Amino acid sequence: RLPKQQNKGVCCLLQTENAAEEPRVLCIVQDTTNAKTVNERLTLNLPASTTLSKLFNEVAHKAGYVSGTFDLAWGKTTDVAPLDLSSEMSLTESGFEAGKRNFLQLTDKDGEQPQLDDLGTADSSGLDDSSHERLMGPLPRDCTVGCSSDYSSPSYSYSSILNKSDTGYVGLVNQAMTCYLNSLLQTLFMTPEFRNALYNWEFEESEEDPVTSIPYQLQRLFVLLQTSKKRAIETTDVTRSFGWDSSEAWQQHDVQELCRVMFDALEQKWKQTEQADLINQLYQGKLKDYVRCLECGYESWRIDTYLDIPLVIRPFGASQAYCSVEEALQAFVQPETLDGANQYFCERCKKKCDARKGLRFLHFPYLLTLQLKRFDFDYTTMHRIKLNDRMSFPEELDMSPFIDVEDEKSPQTESCTDSGAENEGSCHSDQMSNDFSTDDGVDEGICLDSASSTERVLKPKVPSRNASSLTFELFSVMVHSGSAAGGHYYACIKSFSDGQWYSFNDQHVSKITQEDIRKTYGGSSGNRGYYSSAFASSTNAYMLIYRLKDPSRNAKYLDCDNFPEHIKHLVQREKESEEQEKRQKEIERNTCKIKLFCMHPVKMMMMENKLEVHKDKTLREATEMAYKLMDINGVVPMDCCRLVKYDEFHEYLERSYEGEEDTTMGQLLGGVKSSYMFDLLLETRRPEQVFQPYKPGEVMVKVYVLDLNTETIAPPVSLRAYLNQSVTEFKQLIAQATGLSAETMRVVLERCYNDLRLLYVPNKTLKAEGFFRSNKVFVESSESTDNEVAFTDSLLWKLLDRHANTIRLFVSLPEQSPGIHRTICQKVGCDPEESLENSKGSRKSVDAILEESTEKLKNLTLQQQQGSSTSDSQKSSDSSDFEHIKSPSPSQDGGASSDPETQFTGEERSDSEVNNDRSTSSVDSDILSSSHSSDTLCNADSGPIQLVNGLDSHSITSSRRSKAREGKKETWDTAEEDSGTDSEYDENGRSKTDSQYLYFRSEPYAQDDGSGEGQKCLLVHVDKRITLAAFKQNLEPFVGITSSQFKVFRVYANNQEFESVRLNETLSSFSDDNKITIRLGRALKKGEYRVKVYQLLVNDAEPCKFLVDTVFAKGMTVKQSKEELLPQLRDQCKLDLSVDRFRLRKKTWKNPGTVFLDYHIYEEDINISSNWEVFLEVLDGPEKMKSMSQLAVLTRRWTPAQMKLEPFQEVVLESSTVEELNEKLSEISGIPLENLEFAKGRGTFPCDISVLEIHQDLDWNPKVSTLNVWPLYICDDGAVVFYRDNTEEPMELSEDERNELMKRESSRLLKTGHRVSYSPRKEKALKIYLDGGPAKDPGQD
């Protein structure tokens, strides 16, 4: 379309009068409207004063288009509104930059291609035919999976796919993996007889829902394919009529299978209409399946119908493929001789005779479909494969050599068997069966509510017997590219209008040549023998469709003028719908979409939404839209709101828009963009306040004022400063806002978590100190001597350090605690003066306990301070007395809300189990934590200051804490650490050394559980650097017992609880508003391990049953642990056992392992770890295992004559020899040694296997002398061994008995969780539902 000199990117300088000295604008235009021009560039160098309308004219002149029939848009961004054709603004005023390259894209206007200027200079003759090859084959598609990596074509660009086809044909959008559907739909659309018949069918809306009507949705699709101006259209309405949901778009199917199933569905829908027999008339043929006796000539036969002919690519067992379709057809009708063991029983001879069996074609359909069976099964690798061998096919196919003239003339009523009408549409010869079917009994085809079993009468038309009546012309080749595992379909179709071949490749339609058709033959150059297909191209023809050359029947496509009236109405409706869609897209293209934030004036929480405003709307109108969107009507008047530019990530107000209320949003936001680098904030004020102007270049600072006397931090005050201000000027600015003295002021900048910087250089600028868009500073202006010491040793630093490391936790106390009765008097919002309810005896209230514990902690702190050394390290780590700091009042909408769904319930598990489940040695324990509050510690009790800008203290403390969580990971090193009994702690879990006091403060908090009684809780503020041991000691007064007698459980998402047991670990993995549950029970001491005990029931359907949780200790013998288990088993499990009537053994997942002997000692003879699991096995008699040299094997007899597996029996071997095992098995079974065979079970216990497979599948009678070598490897107790009598023959089963047994075995093995077979994943059957969707089977898994 472009002249050659322009294709080479020659720069065309446009000389204009009086423009010699003005700056020039370089425009580089990419024409994206056509695949042939997408890689070319059109370059123009224009004066900066050139108007946009002049630019359009120049581009139209150079590209050879009619001006006004295309759009120009910026090329470096997406989703941007096109430039205004009629604008008289200059290029510089429109955003073009002089002296720089300005990239533009020439695009379709309203979805239509630009009109060519017949008088223009551009042409397309410069393009050679090599482009045809470029357009042939599969195209890479964006975000589409399922296509095999076997094919790729580097010469395609994705942009070419998006460009509208210049062929006049419309593509189909690939939903995900629906290329097979697109290929078939385009083929049917390009079949005149099918398309015209579909148009002649009229939909009656009163009789059927249009959404579920398959013919109606196909009709709509065909109308759009013929009349739409779009590049490609969707097929979702068609697939929805099939009853498919979105998941079906991700299922890959066979195009021949789809064709058969779709035709069946159409026949069902077209019953009682003129199109009832359309599929048969167009696609159905007839053949005779016969067997002829070679002795007497008697022939038995039946007539079958077919919709397609499957042709074998390579005969079974052969190394060479058929060369052509004609050769494959000849092989299809070639009879085979039945002789030897395959002799045929002749009804006339009354004996088995040699016979000839074959197929004869009686009638060919008008539209002949040939399926090339390229998918086969490799019995060597036991995998499906694709045969890529070359098979040629002619453009005109003469089928007269394959017709049986005598049989065709013979009366069709002479059939000696049924015609097989119930199997209509498929061939029934062995040759036509699907060799690689893995259906496994899953039905394919249509699902009918009430499928009719009425047989249809077949009356195929017999063509006239002239030579031309059986000549077929090829018009569709459906190509598969890829492997048997997956690939891509596209169609090569010849138009009957002009005889031109086209490639329909999903969205892309292009012209192709006969040479491109020949490339789909498959194969490769040279002869590679049997493996030739492995080196051949994976892109080859899969289905061929021919049409009979018969001028009396060959139809032409209906044009729009000859459409039936109901189709004309449908075209009009679709056109109106398309116009409406265009208008909506035009609005979308001119709509600015940007994030909108607003701090609610009452709730003081940041709200977020998306503002969608047309680019021509003014700022005033956009503010009204934002006001309504945020739903603050009645809270704040409209005149107390404004929109400002905002950076949500840095919480930074960039600028305000004073005096620009009538400016359009497109100008303020810099045009319509897919995303913006900033946000908008709807700012509010009180009526008596005045909005503060925000100028670009200012930085935002949140100032927190500290009081060293009360050790409190006030809510923040927001200021705006400049980066070039000095520290002295900044202090004066703070003094004006806070009333503090600038002379004694200390300012600390918090740049990131735990990075505190004291600003002490007066003349240094804020930029040099590290200020950015949004900043956080702490100020203090007292006259104390604290400013005389080093900053890291000062009380100011310690206060800020505590502020950064203190977290808020919700601790749920147990319902009953020994010796303590806690009564929570104060719920959220209750009167704090309300007296507490005291109960009997010496029980204390929570406030009394709090007061007592606080006093005790104070004394402990004073003692530590008096006894501390003066070393720098201790100075920096010591904490002062923080008991007088104001603690925050619990937030009413905080983590301890009254939502009954958030009660502390769930499965109790320990943190160590998390490690076991994840099979890792290092786990970030905060991964499972719930959402965290952004409330800060020291200012939560004070009312938030109403700021002019509407922003509250949205502190970045929460983000700082989250960073701390990222840096800390819990580790599992040794069993002692796992059990939480580090040597630093005594047997009661208390530290042996004096630990540094870290901040801990608590107050009562009641959570309503919905029963009227509040759940007793504590709201704890604690330094997260405290250890778990110290944390538990601080909780002792509230629980009422020592820390060794209660356990700490961390509550994760979904109320799952995990026990925290590592006493030496800190709380650094916890975060604000995490929940903790305290449960009564003895915590583990040093050397103790929590153990789960399961009962082993070898002959039960569920052999593994949980019994109890218990504790084993280091140095304890197995017998001692069994004695301690007895009371638990009796009380909790109702098992009344004696020590010598059960054993303990190793448990590895579900497998029983080593038998533990009574004298074994834990940690010496038996390795043990936290949350260990063991099996308890009840013995039928005295323990036979006395020594570690013995081997306990679980044996099971297989009796083929009864198709039955006997129960397990344990055999104890003194040595690991096969001879001893055989002797023991012979002894318990009575099978003679010479007849006994055994095999090791596969998989996990109980090594279940189907009785239909066990006789052949196991490795019987391995040729080894000892058990501990390959292939047995029986080295430990618990191995499963099957054995049998090799003289016993399997039971002979009838077909019904085998099927019944198969169902029973499948059900049994599925219940036990074992695989029924080793077959690969079954493909999902393709189904089309006539009732709108699949029926939901309540019993279906």
Describe this structure in words.
The chain is α+β, with helices and mostly antiparallel strands and 1341 residues long. The protein has 29 helices and 55 strands. Strands 10, 15, 18, 20, 21, 22, 23 and 24 form an 8-stranded mixed β-sheet that branches. The protein has a 7-stranded mixed β-sheet with strand order 37-43-42-44-36-41-40. Strands 30, 31, 32, 33, 34 and 35 form a 6-stranded mixed β-sheet that branches. Helix 7 crosses helix 14. The longest helix is centred in the middle third of the chain and has 25 residues, at 565-589. The model is unreliable at 1-20, 120-163, 407-468, 526-535, 817-983, 1315-1322 and 1336-1341 (pLDDT under 50).
Shape: flat
Question: Roughly what fraction of the amino acids lie in strands?
Answer: 15-25%
Count of DSSP strands = 55
> How large is the count of helical segments?
29
Q: Helix content range of the residues, please?
A: 10-25%
Class of secondary structure makeup = alpha+beta
**How far do the termini sit from each other?**
60 Å
Outline the biggest β-sheet: 8 strands, mixed
Q: What is the radius of gyration computed over CA atoms, rounded to a whole number of angstroms?
A: 42 Å
Topology diagram in text:
Layout: H1 4-7, E1 12-13, E2 24-31, E3 41-47, H2 52-63, E4 70-74, E5 101-108, H3 130-135, H4 158-162, E6 171-172, H5 179-189, H6 192-200, H7 214-227, E7 232-233, H8 236-241, H9 255-269, H10 278-283, E8 285-293, E9 299-306, E10 309-312, H11 325-333, E11 336-338, E12 344-346, E13 351-353, E14 355-363, E15 367-373, E16 375-378, E17 383-386, E18 396-398, H12 405-409, E19 445-447, E20 471-483, E21 486-494, E22 501-505, E23 508-512, H13 514-518, E24 539-548, H14 565-589, E25 591-599, E26 606-614, H15 619-629, E27 641-647, E28 652-656, H16 665-669, E29 679-684, E30 698-707, E31 712-713, E32 717-722, H17 727-738, E33 746-752, E34 755-759, H18 766-769, E35 774-780, H19 795-805, E36 806-812, H20 846-867, H21 872-877, E37 908-910, H22 911-918, E38 922-923, H23 957-967, E39 970-971, H24 975-978, E40 1000-1008, E41 1014-1023, H25 1028-1039, E42 1046-1051, E43 1057-1060, E44 1074-1080, E45 1088-1096, E46 1104-1113, H26 1118-1133, E47 1142-1148, E48 1151-1156, E49 1172-1178, E50 1191-1199, E51 1204-1205, E52 1209-1213, H27 1218-1229, E53 1236-1240, ...
Parallel strand pairs: 1-3, 2-5, 6-7, 10-15, 19-55, 25-29, 30-35, 36-44, 37-43, 45-49, 50-54
Antiparallel strand pairs: 2-3, 4-5, 8-9, 8-14, 11-14, 12-13, 15-24, 16-17, 18-20, 20-21, 20-24, 21-22, 22-23, 25-26, 27-28, 27-29, 30-31, 30-32, 33-34, 33-35, 36-41, 38-39, 40-41, 42-43, 42-44, 45-46, 47-48, 47-49, 50-51, 50-52, 53-54
Helix pairs in contact: 7-14
